[in-house]
Amino acid sequence: MFDTFIFFWLFSWSLTGVFVADAVKSESVTEGESVSLNSSLTQIQTHEEIEWKFGDILIAKVKNNKSVFYDIDDERFRDRLKLDQTGSLTIINSRTTDSGLYTVSSSSRDTINTINLTVYARLPVPDISRDSSQCSSSSSSSSSSCSLVCSAVNVSHVTLSWFKGNSSLSSISVSDLSISLSLPLEVEYEDQNTYSCVLNNPIRNQTQHLNNTQLCHTCAESIHCCGFTEAVIRLALSAVVGVATVVVLVYDIRSRSLQQKKSVQK
Least buried of 54, 114, 192, 251, by fewest C-beta within 10 Å? Predict the structure, then answer.
């Protein structure tokens, strides 16, 4: 009889929209996007109070059917929070600093939902370039391979990978903020396969496809094979050497001419 009473009591609570707390749930979003955190309520009851906390800090409340928001940490959430009729919390224009644990509780019940929110930074498109450090050795040898490097800067919680078609060739991951992330690849000059470099986190990815024709050719074929900057430096050095050679020749000719004049005068 007592068990039957408990069953109907719990059932009556479920009809009012209040549930026993579930395990911690996870939500992920890319910064700049909006995210809705579910309260697990179907409807807020009259005179029921709903509170949202970020960590241990109160950030929003529903009281007497009115929403109240609290600004914290230099007004972190100012004008970016909304509550609907179910008590669900929406964060507008999310930021990476919004990542953390959110809990919602009711005046009729303790914690009814706990959500771990992760806001990922926007992913840059990875850059593929010729590895200039390998140019000198490749140009002076009979190597038929092209040295490439794919890189990404200012990234965290990502994986950088090389793909040949749909097959993964190599990858490197970083969890903390990294100033620079790079991954090398050797490709034959005449290789016509499709290669791509992919930067991804658990919810997004950015892909850069390799233009083999543009980047992979021998140094004898184009001045740009080792990069524009290195080509300019080589041209500048050649010009300096040329000018120096002319100056030396002119000085030598003038010196000989003066010597001849002195000889004639004697």
Answer: 192
- Give dist(CA 170, CA 264) in Å, integer: 78
pTM over 0.85: no
- How many CA atoms lie less than 13 Å away from 74 in the CB half-sphere? 1
Alpha helices in 161-227 (DSSP H): 212-215
Distance between CA atoms of 126 and 86, rounded to whole angstroms? 42
According to DSSP, the residues that pair with 145 across neighbouring strands are 188
What is the distance of C-alpha 239 from the center of its chain?
42
Residue in 88, 74, 75 with CA at minimum distance from that of residue 44: 88
Residue 155 pairs in a beta bridge with 178
Between strands 109-120 and 127-130, the pairing is unpaired
DSSP H helical segments within the chain, as ranges? 2-15, 135-139, 212-215, 228-265
Distance CA 43, CA 108 (A): 13
DSSP 138-172: HHSS---EEEEEEEEEEE-SEEEEEEETTEEEEEE
CA distance 215 to 233: 19
Q: Which residue has the tokens 């179907």?
A: 42
Summarised one tens digit per residue, pLDDT across range 123-154 is: 999 999 987 665 544 444 446 788 999 999 98
